[in-house]
Amino acid sequence: MSILIKGGTVIGPTGAQPADVLVDGETIVAIFAPGKGPEGPGPEVIDATGKYVIPGAVDAHTHMELPFGGTHASDTFDTGTRAAAIGGTTTIIDFAVQRTGEVVQDGLAAWHGKAGGNCHIDYAFHMILGGVDDDALKAMDQLVASEGITSFKLFMAYPGVFYSDDGQILRAMQKARENGAMIMMHAENGPAIDVLVKQALERGETDPIYHGLTRPQELEAEATSRAIWLASVAADCPLYIVHLSASKALEQVKAARDLGRNVFAETCPQYLYLTLEDQLGAPGFEGAKWVCSTPLRSKHESHRADLWQGLRTNDLSVVSTDHCPFCMKDQKELGLGDFSKIPNGIGSVEHRVDLLYQGVVDGKLSLARWVETIATTPARMFGLYPKKGIIAPGSDADIVLYDPNGRTRISVETHHMNMDHSAWEGWEIAGKVDTVMSRGEVIASGGEYTGRKGRGKYVPRALSEYLV
Ligand code: DUC
Ligand code: ZN
Ligand code: ZN
């Protein structure tokens, strides 16, 4: 079946252009100057007058069902990918987990078991390595060669859980340099944070805000710098810093990029908008909703302005969500009386497209850069392009019709994520997702979901495109 998306303005990384888009089956087959597409009986026509036509967004950082802090992230692949779809995201890259002591391939098989048959949109995996040893290093080669997994996340934080020491990190980086994979780094100095957490608790400082105060930006910057130097020792292994939140960490990334290093970074909507004082410091236990790591930063410093600037200058290449939702009831509440026991994470998979469009309206991002940071670059960074992330002949027909004149009100009453609160409760922002198409099928329209569970497919990934 063919569909002609007619009368809209197509936005890509090179700018905006009025154009009609022809879809045949699951694929985009042609782009026409307005009105020059097929006439008469033929394709079904979707009227996109007044709408932006953008590639389905790619969220390169989600944690469906992640085991964490004695519980599990509250979105399953079913609920999380459905919410993502409604919000205009048509591909996620989730993190499969190798727990310490587990065979890497067993962790991967478990993740396929959770996602298979349950996703509403296409999905891919990165692999978290919970322990780097000879077997894990061999597994890295196998995952790159045969499983379509070309990126591995390591943690400089969370000693005793996901933590890798510098020697382990260096070995994984050397392996990645050999096989072309990307090392993704959670860059916070975990052992130093643990000292500050212990001291805070001994002083009776138990409220959620102390989660942020015991993770100062210096410990993010130090770890970011150390990761960059370790990657340098590993012959400039490609390095991607996840959830970068702070000005001083960004300075480290900028300096490395100015030297032409293979260093990349992402940030997330929470760091662009929310703050230590206004959210994490909310009265009583309320701030638990915003406990995530890296933490929200102070509004009295220049973090948010610096991050928006970093997105404009490409020192930050990608905006992902780090979607890791936990309900207040029975989950965040595990940390009542002890902030260090609050499961870390914020859920935003449904809202990233809209939240970043607000940046366009506020004059902080161009339209082209909006699309580039939420769709095109994540697809290129992680080997999904040109199947995903672009409106071009031959690409998957993952397409969002976006209404720039619409408005979106975010609330727990209306969101589709499996959370009993929203980190963005009551926010009313510009723009609205109108229609979402995934591989040629309209799966959401006017906020109503019309797809079905199980239609999403696993997408094996190639190597990053950004490496020479
Ligand atoms: N940070 C979070 O906020 N949640 C899960 C893991 C992480 O690194
Ligand atoms: Zn992390
Ligand atoms: Zn994460």
Account of the protein in words:
Helix 3 packs parallel to helix 4, helix 4 packs across helix 7 and helix 7 runs parallel beside helix 8. The two termini are 40 Å apart. The protein is built from 13 helices and 19 strands. The strands form 3 sheets. Strands 1, 2, 3, 4, 5, 16, 17, 18 and 19 form a 9-stranded mixed sheet that branches. It has 468 residues and is of the alpha/beta class. The mean pLDDT is 97. The structure holds dihydropyrimidine-2,4(1H,3H)-dione (DUC) and zinc ion (2 copies).
Assembly context of the chains: single chain
Tell me about the largest β-sheet.
Answer: 9 strands, mixed
- Give the radius of gyration: 21 Å
- Helix count, DSSP H or I runs of 4 or more residues: 13
**Fraction of residues in helix:** 25-40%
How widely separated are the two ends?
40 Å
In total, the number of strands is: 19
Low-confidence stretches: none
**Which shape, going by the Cα principal axes?**
globular
Arithmetic mean of pLDDT = 97
Short structural summary:
The protein is an alpha/beta fold and 468 residues long. The chain has 13 helices and 19 strands. The longest helix has 17 residues, at 217-233.
Task: Provide key terms for this protein.
about 475 residues, alpha/beta, nine-stranded mixed sheet, eight-stranded parallel sheet, 13 helices, globular, binds dihydropyrimidine-2,4(1H,3H)-dione, binds zinc ion
